């Protein structure tokens, strides 16, 4: 048997982009402390499972992952952190082999709480989530694939009727301004060129130094950062000043919006407790579409919300088809205990939710294809990512997935470099591109 001097740690993430970026930071801290990181499923001495609680199904997937780890690694120290730890600590504590359960307030400090020995009973750290601004004390050298998430905000105070996030992650709060910039500079020094601005409800960012606009303005000035992409942003929170920056080729902000719509009828939107009517949403959407050149517009639509009739579902499809959306993430409504919507008695049959979801996904694929096709023959800037065996993947500024042959430019290394690429043909869910010239 090979002798081991380094302890092995295995991490697993369930849920959103925010959870993924947080896990990466924790992973890097473990590496710095001498742990060897092994894939989830391999024998380990330490397991950290970063959980999600967005639906009852998500809870059950978390429990499965925890059991999977503790069964395979009965002697390993097992820590469960994140949203499900915040909301369901008792259920997690009932799983044999769990040593530590940490909610959202302290989860980024999990490494400080890890013990040498297993605990007889799990330690539960589940503090009330603070309403104050926050800082991230450890940036590490997290690995990146050219794009790096940068979290500027956490929590949400909007209380949509289907969503547990305001309870699991607490009320909306913003990250210290200087702390964001420090991380951005560190990432740029590491070679990161594209930042993806993340948070639960980023449009509500506000500290004494400023709002989302101030953050973007300052990030734009960070040397080395060439592209800034805003992740999902709530419709009522988007400043129109962003349009000018998106049009300005000297500004790093990319022409990209992902604005959750959720439903196509005012009745359903009201029951979801969303903060806009269809006409308000569409007025903004068209303004953005008409103001920003080559803008990508993505959205989220939920199908099968309690009481959603066939006609209301068709309205969602119609609104999606007849307006300048380029893609939609389709979510089937899934009960989440503790939410207003889960208590309703008029749930749509599961089978019917699946049918609606499949239908809307087909419409979305078709729209994305049309969006890609509309750009054929044009030349656009891309940032190449790490290579796949046969090709170099990249995204254009407006989020068209492009691939170039692996042997392009005589097999030169293209990773993390910008280029101008001519878009030649659409193949399934990407576009084949030909490099016109490298930009760096
Ligand atoms: S805006 Fe609504 S859906 Fe989004 S996190 Fe807040 S409560 Fe949840």
Q: How does this structure look, described?
A:
With 440 residues, the protein is α/β, with parallel strands linked by helices. It has three domains: 8-125, Rossmann fold, CATH 3.40.50; 147-374, pyruvate-formate lyase- activating enzyme; 379-438, OB fold (Dihydrolipoamide Acetyltransferase, E2P), CATH 2.40.50. It has 14 helices and 21 strands. The strands form six sheets. A six-stranded parallel sheet has the order 2-1-3-4-5-6, with helices on both faces. It has a five-stranded mixed β-barrel with strand order 17-18-19-21-20. Strands 7-10-13 form a three-stranded parallel sheet, sandwiched between helices. Helix 12 packs parallel to helix 13 (350-374). The protein is globular. The chain starts with 7 loop residues before the first strand and ends with a strand. Iron/sulfur cluster (SF4) binds next to helix 6.
């Amino acid at each position: 048997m090979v002798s081991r001097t380094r302890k092995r740690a295995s991490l697993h993430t369930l849920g959103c982009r925010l959870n993924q970026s947080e896990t990466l930071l924790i992973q890097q801290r473990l590496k710095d402390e001498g742990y060897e990181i092994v894939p989830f499923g391999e024998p380990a001495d330490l397991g950290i499972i970063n959980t999600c609680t967005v639906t009852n199904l998500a809870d059950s997937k978390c429990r499965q992952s925890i059991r999977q780890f503790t069964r395979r690694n009965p002697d390993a120290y097992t820590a469960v952190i994140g949203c499900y730890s915040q909301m369901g600590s008792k259920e997690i504590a009932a799983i044999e082999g769990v040593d530590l359960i940490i909610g959202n307030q302290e989860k980024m400090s999990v490494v400080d709480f890890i013990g040498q020995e297993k605990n007889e009973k799990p330690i539960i750290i589940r503090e009330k989530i603070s309403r104050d601004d926050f800082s991230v004390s450890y940036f590490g050298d997290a690995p990146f694939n050219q794009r790096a998430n940068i979290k500027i905000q956490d929590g949400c105070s909007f209380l949509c009727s289907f969503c547990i996030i305001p309870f699991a992650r607490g009320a909306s709060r913003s990250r210290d301004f200087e702390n964001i910039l420090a991380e951005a500079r560190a990432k740029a020094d590491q070679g990161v060129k594209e930042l993806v601005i993340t948070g639960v409800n980023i449009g509500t960012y506000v500290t004494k130094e400023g709002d989302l606009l101030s953050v973007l303005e300052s990030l734009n000035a960070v040397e080395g950062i060439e592209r800034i992409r805003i992740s999902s942003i709530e419709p009522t929170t988007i400043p129109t000043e962003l349009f000018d920056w998106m049009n300005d080729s000297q500004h790093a902000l990319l022409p990209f919006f992902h604005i959750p719509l959720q439903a196509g009828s005012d009745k359903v939107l009201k029951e979801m407790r969303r903060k806009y009517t269809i006409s308000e949403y569409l007025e903004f959407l068209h303004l953005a579409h008409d103001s920003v050149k080559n803008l990508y517009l993505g959205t989220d639509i939920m199908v099968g919300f309690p009481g959603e009739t066939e006609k209301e579902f068709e309205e969602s499809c119609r609104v999606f088809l007849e307006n300048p959306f380029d893609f939609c993430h389709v979510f089937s409504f899934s009960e989440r205990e503790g939410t207003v919507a889960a208590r309703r008695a008029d749930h749509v049959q599961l089978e019917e939710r699946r049918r609606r979801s499949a239908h809307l996904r087909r419409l979305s694929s078709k729209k994305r294809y049309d969006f890609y096709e509309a750009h054929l023959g044009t030349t656009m800037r891309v940032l190449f990512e790490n290579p796949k065996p046969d090709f170099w993947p990249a995204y254009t500024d407006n989020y068209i997935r492009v691939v170039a042959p692996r042997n392009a430019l005589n097999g030169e290394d293209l990773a993390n470099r910008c280029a101008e690429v001519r878009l030649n043909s659409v193949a399934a869910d990407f576009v084949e591109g030909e490099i016109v010239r490298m930009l760096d």
